[in-house]
Amino acid sequence: MARPWSMGARLSRQAIIDAARDLLAAEGIDAVSLRRVAGALGVTAPALYAHVTDKRDLLQGVADQEGRRVIERIRSIPATDPLTLIRARSLAYVDYAKENPALFKAIFMVRPELTAEPQDAQAVVTMATEAFQVGAAPVFELARAGLLGRVDPHLAALAIWTATHGVATVILAGPEFDPELERSLVETVIDAVIAGLTGRRPQAGPGGRPKEGGSGDHAPEAGP
Questions:
Q1: Residue 61, CA atoms < 13 Å, CB-side half-sphere
Q2: Contact present, 48 and 107 (Cβ < 8 Å)
Q3: Superfamily, domain 64-224
């Protein structure tokens, strides 16, 4: 449901994007149209054209705003040791996907509607690059501390993101899991890739399931 908007208020691009975001979150990307957004705001569709050029521009505005919120949510997690921070940020990414499935699919599982024009594709790349840099920062801290061995930190960060994004996608697209099993799956995937890259288990942060030992514990060596 769109958030309340006063007819006496000045119509703005922000109000239009907020209404589109609420509609997308509730009903999915295919439900978003200029007519539906205008109806939610109590105006006619032509009134929107002073602020957005078309549906593509509207969806890109939603993607830009929501992508920024995700980045700030991940960035705001209190800094701890790098292993724990990587784990906490990965879990936060998956939690966002679970809490906002329609928005996650529209923003991070790229649709043609958001990349129809070259400048839109570049906007997606720019947002993804910033998100990657935020997630990769503690990985580079591990590299500087000598905890990645010979693993390239860029490759390590990509591997962690791939595992995190992958498990989030499976949860949204796959069968409905028991909540406890789902959480165990997420934590196992994230912990396994971190341990595989560093030989160490991350310590569970706030909201995570406590583990024996701390972030300095070595993972068991792989067998032959």
A1: 20
A2: no
A3: Tetracycline Repressor, domain 2 (1.10.357.10)
Helix axes 101-108, 153-173, angle to 10 degrees: 130
Q: Helix 118-144 vs helix 82-99: angle between axes, to the nearest 10 degrees? A: 150
CATH topology match: 1-52 vs 64-224: no
Report d(CA 224, CA 215) in Å as an integer.
25
pLDDT of residue 139: 95
Q: In the Cβ-directed half-sphere of 45, how many Cα atoms lie within 13 Å?
A: 9
The Cβ of residue 82 has, within 10 Å, a number of other Cβ atoms equal to 22
Rg (CA), the chain: 20
CATH entry, 1-52, from 3.40.50.620, 1.10.10.60, 3.40.50.300, 1.10.8.10: 1.10.10.60
On the CB side of 126, CA atoms within 13 Å amount to 11
CA distance 93 to 164: 8
pLDDT digits (tens, 9 = 90+) for 7-19: 445 799 999 999 9
DSSP string, 155-205: HHHHHHHHHHHHHHHHHHHSPPPPHHHHHHHHHHHHHHHHHHHHSBPPPP-
Give tens-digit pLDDT for 154-205.
999 999 999 999 999 999 987 888 999 999 999 999 999 999 999 887 766 5
Spell out the domain ranges in the chain.
Answer: 1-52, 64-224
For residue 84, what is the enclosing H or E element? helix 82-99
